Fold these 2 entries.
Entry 1:
Amino acid sequence: MPVLRPFVLSGGGARGYAHLGVLKAFAERQIFPEAIAATSAGSIAAAFICDGFHTDEVREIFRQQKLGLSMEWKNWRAGFLSLKKVEEALKKNLRHTTFESLPVPLYVAATNFANGEQKIFDRGPLIPAILAASTIPMLFRPVDIDGVPYVDGGLSGNLPVEPLLLKYKRVIGVHVNPLTPYNPAGGFFANMERTVHMAIREPVLKSKQQCEYFIEPEGLGQFGIFDFSKFDAIYTIGLGYTRKLLKTMM
């Protein structure tokens, strides 16, 4: 007999592929989302799941579309990366284009770039909200929605559990950014990414306390947010880790 539970999915760039592995392991135990709150990479996976796709179907879409980043050599002021491939995949494959029409409720968290506040989208057009939630400042141009610039939701809460707390119980949290041991020889990009993780970690730990179960697959720390070519390895870590954990949890 299928069991429905609320899930909250974090951001994490390419590590977001692990969300599919985690959800696959739960599906094998007949546990499926009754609602999902998510941000950034987590919101991309969540959109397909809430749209009625199975994890295997989403995995195939990601593989076929070679989901990742597009380079656009704009000036630094505007940002030089785009989410064009993500946008194309969403437009091509999603069956529903508004939050209200989704079979499973979805809450997408972005950050208001004007005042820094978290914004939860659960009404209106789906795709602009997902793109806004996935837009890393400086690398991407903010996404304008109703005259307000929005960027990555991870900045204001990388595990946005709040929308679920009033309506649902026994939340399952999935965070794909384990903090790895400090390596002084890590280099500029490794240290920059570590700095971001540490800056957003405290709100994640608070959100963790609101979850009955918290999944943070070990091994994902070896991958960077732009390791989109490592799809299979990232997915496999999420799947294998969660399968093992579920044997002891349930």
Entry 2:
Amino acid sequence: MSWQAYVDNNLVGSGKIHRAAILGHKGGVWAISPGYTLSAEEQKAILAAFDKQDVTQAKGVHLAGQKFFTLQCNTRSIYGKKAADGCVLVKTKQAILVAEYVGPIQAPEATPVVEGLADYLIGAGY
């Protein structure tokens, strides 16, 4: 399956994720939802967010020009919230999954979709 298919079918296609991207650990966008733009600065910050958890917790996560307050942050996952909307970022061996959901979808509906795909990719060596 192509990387774009993971975004289109597994994430956005679930009906729980509004827009998503897959970033490589070494930089670069592997796949992204149409019209979703993560600036070079945002991509760099996302890559660093898992290593600088104290900064991520204090400053939040910026995606496509919007700030999400960090609810939880660890070496694998970052969860953020902005009003009724939220984000889920999950680090695999070679990539970072970035997903946003919009209300009325809630974190307990969106999080398993992203975490499940991350588990699959980790199992496949990615």
